[in-house]
Amino acid sequence: MTAPVRFPRFFVTSPAPCPYLAGRTERKVFTELKGPHADQLNEALGRIGFRRSQTVAYRPSGVDCQACVSVRVVAGEFAPSKAQKRILKRNSDLVVTECRPWATSEQFELLREYLGHRHPEGGMTKMDEVDYADMVEHTPVSSYVLEYREPTSDGSVGRLVGACLTDRQGDGLSMIYSFYDSENEERSGLGNFIILDHIRRAAEEGIPYVYLGYWVEGSARMQYKIRYRPLERLGPRGWRRLGSEEQDRLIREAVGGDASAGSTGRGDKALAVSR
Predict the structure, then answer these.
(1) Does the CA dihedral 11-16-21-23 come out positive or negative?
(2) Which of 89, 201, 271, 273 is the most buried (most CB within 10 A)?
(3) Per the domain annotation, does 38 fall within a domain?
(4) How far apart are CA 42 and CA 52, in angstroms?
């Protein structure tokens, strides 16, 4: 007999300016993840479009705007494009290590450099090292940090060039927040490589999906997510796979936008780290 799970209490934030679409506002519905069933609750909410930030699960809540769409890659059927194959080859020498969710000064310095270059106006630029530790370590669910390091000739620990906080769910890997050395021209596409590596890992482990967070049509900084096939989006009737023609159109429209971004997070410090 399974133990009863207490139905969570949900709350709604006050309206705030949308960080993706000018002139729009957003609200979020959220609940706390706690207790012995936090993992199960997080997985159940993840399947209906919620994201995790520390001990909170949230999703956008708007009556007149449905622009934020949850998307996930079907890992077992993924086939990289020519451009993605080049990214994989360019970064194939990186040493990838799965670490427990424990923040380090090295990770924080990389994050600070990444935010200063990629999102200088975002709220996360105000984070200090304690805030970063809270983001990584305050997790009531199964999480880990993947570190991406350059190889060395003597076997020593190489320079950290990328990292991703990831939740391991029953049906997928949920990429909470990734960051990387965005000024390294020799490793262009590093953010996309981190996503590609998660897809590979999920496929090898027999895990169906990689959750990329929210995709916002019309927001250039979110268009990189549309380039992974097959891609499913969450709608009123559940998850639906994008058709080839539909995805081709969206990719064409994304050309010229910021398709190289690697973060699955938005720029906010509170609640929305895992956008």
Answers:
(1) positive
(2) 273
(3) yes
(4) 8
Residues ≥6 apart with Cβ < 8 Å to 197: 96, 146, 148
- 21-48 pLDDT, tens digit each: 888 888 999 999 998 899 999 999 999 9
Taking the mean position of all CA atoms in its chain, how far away is CA 40? 20
CA distance 40 to 217: 30
| Domain assignment of residue 128, given as a range | 11-254
DSSP string spanning 170-228? SSEEEEEEEEE-TT-GGGTTHHHHHHHHHHHHHHHHT--EEEEEEEETT-GGGGGGGGS
Domain CATH for 242? 3.40.630.30
Distance CA 202, CA 170 (A): 11
CB of 140 closer than 8 Å to CB of 32: no
Which of 133, 141, 119, 110 minimizes the C-alpha distance to 211? 141
Q: CB atoms < 10 A from the CB of 85, how many? A: 12
On whether residue 98 sits in a domain, the answer given is: yes
At 49-66, the pLDDT tens digits run 999 999 999 999 876 778
With respect to residue 6, please indicate whether it lies within any of the assigned structural domains: no
Report residue 96: phi and psi, to 5°.
Answer: -110, 130
Q: Is residue 274 a part of any domain in this protein?
A: no
Maximum separation of any 2 CA atoms in the chain, in Å: 58
E strand intervals along 43-142: 51-53, 56-60, 68-74, 95-99
Give the total number of structural domains in the chain. 1
